[in-house]
Design goal:
The protein is an all-alpha fold. The protein contains six helices and no strands.
Length: about 100
Amino acid sequence: MVWRTTGGKNRWLCGDCDVLVEDDVDAFRDAAIGALASSVPVTLDLLEAEHALLARRASLLAQAVQGDEAVALWASLGVTDAERVPDMDVDAVRARRTA
């Protein structure tokens, strides 16, 4: 259950990460190296956008129904087949991120 709140699929769907890769050391290394070349300076606009993202997520979680909060969050984010996310492969999850 921990991966539902800290795992890659959840972080991807919530917009917390820029890249989702297979559970593979080489894929992760390649993505990390690629990220080094695309750094973004921290600006007030960027921080305010991140704050808005977190506030929206907190609001959605507050409205989530009892039960599986991760699935409720994904559904509220517009993820199709949210209940199937745990069994999806990386390509299927990548295709479902709405923002």
